[in-house]
Amino acid sequence: MKSNAGSTVNIMNKLLELKGITLDFYSRKRLFRSQALRAVDDVSLELGVGETLGIVGQSGCGKTTLGRVSLRLLKPSAGAILFNGEDISQTPEAGLKTLRRRMQGIFQDPFASIDPFMNVYEILEEPLIIHGLGSNSQRREMIDKVLEEVKLRPTGEFLPKYTHMLSGGQRQRLAIARALILEPQYILADEPVSMIDASNRAEILYLFKELQKRRRMGYLYITHDIATARYFCHRIAVMYLGKIVELGPTLNLLRNPRHPYTRALINAVPSPDPANRFHQRQVIPGEPPSPIGAPAGCRFHPRCPDIVLGKCDIQPPPTLAVEKGHITACHLYS
Ligand SMILES: Nc1ncnc2c1ncn2[C@@H]1O[C@H](COP(=O)(O)OP(=O)(O)OP(=O)(O)O)[C@@H](O)[C@H]1O
Ligand SMILES: [Mg+2]
């Protein structure tokens, strides 16, 4: 199956829209004052039906927090989440149950929170029971069908197994099956292949793509890894310290990155060509600052090689379109 880079999806068919999402974490009160950590700051994006949007950025930039807000596992401090056009940002917990069927998350270690004494059959039956779906025999059929779909077969052999008896790749297939069985329209995939050995990663991403084609699901794919994002995503958003600094179609963004941070991220990836491997790799100077007391102006300015003096350290950059569908927040373009 070919890479999604270079192909586009009509995002007029919006599945998910995040509008001005901000999320503050509060530390425990110290001296009667609680300190806020702004993990996500005024983020807006759209995900189309059948589209994969990548969120890339270094550790701590707010990717997982944004993903959890998109599923309403966290309630945003500000902003709106529109799912199929309906604002779910303030929906009370009780009203979220039906919605949760349509929105599923797949995480790095999917079974961290699952009872190790549950077998594959029980793991797949549990969401059906929670949502009151099917009779016993119908559930058995649904479970067989979904195991086939993720290629854990012969299915009968997998049903009695416990998760510790499965390989990393098989566990992730099971996690995908558990999400799929509820027939979601949207899947948040947060580093879904980072704990799987490199040789099995491509297969799992291939499976995700195949399922998307068949079921027209939208994916938000969170990763550190630009190489998998290039293969898997129709569009990519780059985050730095809680903000999206650039967003565009995968090939445009990777071939012609505009934001100095995106350029630095791409340059930090070792080249697949061994002749270039040791020449091109560059490391972004400095440490990513903390979201507590983030720098004024553009947050990247203390590390930026292209700083426009007198501006970047004072004014936050506006988000501007540099091409159709390709935006960046950088004073170089304002
Ligand atoms: N429950 C929490 N309480 C307080 N602060 C948190 C909490 N979860 C995350 N943070 C902070 O919010 C910021 C964003 O964290 P987040 O986990 O979203 O980053 P990330 O981009 O997913 O990082 P990684 O790539 O390491 O998974 C970090 O500064 C983190 O320390
Ligand atoms: Mg994370």
Structural class: alpha/beta
Total strand segments = 12
Low-confidence stretches: none
If helices are DSSP runs of H or I spanning 4 or more residues, what is the number of helices?
11
Give the rounded overall mean pLDDT. 91
**Order of neighbouring strands in the sheet with most strands:** 6-7-8-3-9-10-12-11
Q: What does the largest sheet look like? A: 8 strands, mixed
Quote the distance from N terminus to C terminus.
39 Å
What is the N-to-C order of secondary-structure elements (H for helix, E for strand)? EEEHEEHEHHHHEHEHEEHHHEE
Question: Strand portion, in percent?
Answer: 15-25%
Radius of gyration: 21 Å
What is the element layout, followed by pairings?
Layout (H helix, E strand, L loop, with lengths): L13 E13 L9 E13 L3 E5 L6 H8 L7 E6 L2 E2 L9 H6 E4 L13 H11 L5 H14 L5 H4 L9 H13 L5 E5 L7 H18 L2 E6 L2 H7 L2 E6 L2 E7 H6 L4 H8 L6 H7 L38 E5 L2 E4 L5
Parallel strand pairs: 3-8, 3-9, 6-7, 7-8
Antiparallel strand pairs: 1-2, 1-4, 4-5, 9-10, 10-12, 11-12
Helix pairs in contact: 4-6, 6-7
Bound molecules: adenosine-5'-triphosphate and magnesium ion (MG).
The site of magnesium ion has 2 residues, from α1.
